[in-house]
Amino acid sequence: MKIAIHQRKDSFSDIWIEYCQINNIPFKLVNCYDSDITVQLNDCDGLMWHWPQWDSKAILFARQLTYSLELSGKKVFPDSNTCWHFDDKIGQKYLFEALGLDSIPTWIFYDKKSAYKWIKNTEYPLVFKLRGGASSKNVKLVKTSHQAKNLVKRAFGKGFKISGKWNKLKDRILKFQKEKTIHSLLHLGKGFFRIIRPNYNERMSTRDKGYLYFQKFVPDNDSDIRLVVVGNRCFGMRRYIRKNDFRASGSVNKSYDPQLINIEVVKLAFEASQKLKMQSVAFDFIKDNNKYKIIEISYAFTSKQFPGYWDSNLKWNEGVVSPQKYMIEDFINEQIKAK
Amino acid sequence: MKLAIHYRPGSYSDRWITYCTEKLIPYKLVSCYDSDIIKQLADCNGLLWHWTTSDYKAALFARQLILSLEKKKFRVFPDVNSSWHYDDKVGQKYLLEAINAPFIKSYVFYSKQEAINWVNKATFPKVFKLRNGASSSNVKLIKNKQIAKQIINKAFKSGFSRAEPISRLKQRFWILKRDKNKASLKKFINGIGRLFIIPEGEIVRNKEKGYVFFQDYIAGNTYDTRVIVIGDKCFGARRYCRPGDFRASGSGLFTYDPALMNMEMVRISFDVAKRLGTQSLAFDFILDKGKPKIIEISYCFAIECCDDAPGFWDSSLNWHYENVNLQKYMIEDFIKSLSKRTSRTEKIAI
């Protein structure tokens, strides 16, 4: 048995490689961007590759490579069930509706005429989103039909730049205000530099157009609940909204205290994860009319340590744990060895 | 049992609707673009939607809709296996390599430096392609390193527009000269108009950039072979290249003579379609040192394709004479797959 790992510094691969070294799991490092990647994988049973939504290169082919490898009988993390809807709120809308998952109502339009017709007769505020973007990027509150009309014009005209450089800068300022360290100062400086000189991924990113996506706005949520399910473990945190904002995702104010998470949500997360058949899934939940509902999902996330987890019997297990370690453990024990 | 059909005049839906009307199959027309499409399908057992490369709206979400429906075990034509790689030569490269299909050697690069390094060692000519585009659009013969480097610079800077109004016009002029009829004249005039009035689909589509894709050029092929597998049936045509050109796809110069068919191509097509689990798959083959090699694949093709074919091969490679209607075979197989599912569910319930 041998697995292939695509190495990227500061990604999940750090933990996966360490796991293999500690547990004597044969592995080889590969480069998924190479033209001969399928040949590189000939002597491997599976591939693990943590590709993020901001990697413009990976977005071009990661899903296609995954589907192809699966058809050839190899195991992949993230597999097709786990990744096809990653960073794609449109895909998630259809998926939640098809599987009957309790999610925040969402509307999508692919032409001006039907979008105009709908915005005339709907209630405001609404949340406008682009299909891609993490940490509340590309998310806006739309308060009037006039604002919505402008969005329609833009969506079916020049489109929206999927750039997060201004948002990123704002978050870096907030982080610096919260923790005045050299690291956060450097981070802030980088943010300013990126405004002038966008990085490769920003330069290669294209405009989003030809569609318009709205989600129901749910008021009175001072936070959302982020739950991560890997196999039969659930990790959680509560994320508080930014000051004078309605968005929690990507906020620096968060708490890992398990007492702050209603056990009913953990149950919901386990149920949804079973339907979704994902190897790893992070849910964002908010409360709508006293009921927790899913806003969106993602296979990847930034947190690498949690103070414990709930098992599928909803029992809390105390102790610092890393979901990324369980990803590779499940991948090897339940997928590669079961092959 | 009830089918949902997304109606688009001029698409396969015309023939599917005719089929349902003649055979008294219950169906309803739906619009997949509607925000509540999942709800619209609640009283149906399967969805048929012929979406194509030219429809920018469908390209935004068709695969996502199909994937979602299949997760709730709802059948769709084309299904995920048939369509995820449609109009995506990069995806096809990985797929056909991963399953060891006889595929023309292809190269893809996601960084400028790696592409340049490769060009310095490669032999020319090579064929440059964008990942999308039908009928030989977005395909160029690259004769030397210098031109290859120009292409690479563009791929990693401004990118390529999918629409090629000039070469589209040239193609339409060539069809006008070939067919000399009203329809081709109309298309040619429309092509001139499109030089000035850019259609919405072309405005909305983004440029192709951040990657570069090349294929080996195989000299001496004056034609390619189009083979289509639908269920247990295989259809074939030989397509000749345009005079003075290396591209056969879209030339419209073809013959359905079964005697001209390379039976190894039929065998390979049945084998690959089976391994991929596709409902409908068209292959473009050329010969490389006498051996068939796949250039690309597609779940759909021109609606009139194979109407004049004299018959088909079955999976045992026996020839059958029959009037051919590919859309009829698609819907017949689809309905069969639905009834199989229904009877299986009934058995489980018992």
Can I get a quick summary?
The complex is a heterodimer of chains A (339) and B (350). Helix content of chain A is 37%, strand content 24%.
The count of β-strands of chain B is: 15
Per DSSP, the total helix count of chain A is: 12
Rounded radius of gyration of chain A (Å): 21 Å
Radius of gyration of chain B: 21 Å
| Uncertain regions spanning at least 5 consecutive residues of chain A | none
Task: Average the pLDDT over all residues of chain A and give the rounded result.
Answer: 91
Encode the helix/strand succession of chain B as letters.
Answer: EHEHEHEHHEHEEHHHHEEEEHEEEEH
Please tell me what the overall shape of chain A is.
globular
Question: Greatest contact pair?
Answer: A-B, 46 and 47 residues
What fraction of residues of chain B sit in β-strands? 15-25%
Query: How many runs of DSSP E, i.e. beta strands of chain A?
Result: 17
Between the first and last Cα atoms of chain A, what is the distance in angstroms? 10 Å
Oligomer: heterodimer
Helix content of chain A: 25-40%
Secondary-structure-derived class of chain A: alpha+beta
The main sheet of chain A comes to: 7 strands, antiparallel
Q: Quickly count the helices of chain B.
A: 12
Fraction of helical residues of chain B: 25-40%
Q: Which runs of chain B of at least 5 residues are low in confidence (pLDDT < 50)?
A: 345-350
What does this structure look like?
The complex is a heterodimer of chains A (339) and B (350). With 339 residues, chain A is α+β, with helices and mostly antiparallel strands. Helix content of chain A is 37%, strand content 24%. Chain A contains 12 helices and 17 strands. In chain A, α1 links the parallel β1 (3-6) and β2. The termini of chain A are close together. The mean pLDDT of chain A is 91. Chain B contains 12 helices and 15 strands. Chain B has helices spanning 13-23, 37-40, 56-71, 80-83, 89-98, 112-121, 145-155, 165-179, 182-196, 200-204, 263-276, 326-349; strands spanning 3-6, 27-30, 46-48, 75-77, 106-109, 126-129, 139-142, 212-216, 223-230, 233-240, 254-255, 280-288, 291-298, 311-314, 319-321. In chain B, α8 packs antiparallel against α9 (182-196). Chain B is globular, with a radius of gyration of 21 Å. The model of chain B is unreliable at 345-350 (pLDDT under 50). The chains are: A alpha+beta (339), B alpha+beta (350).
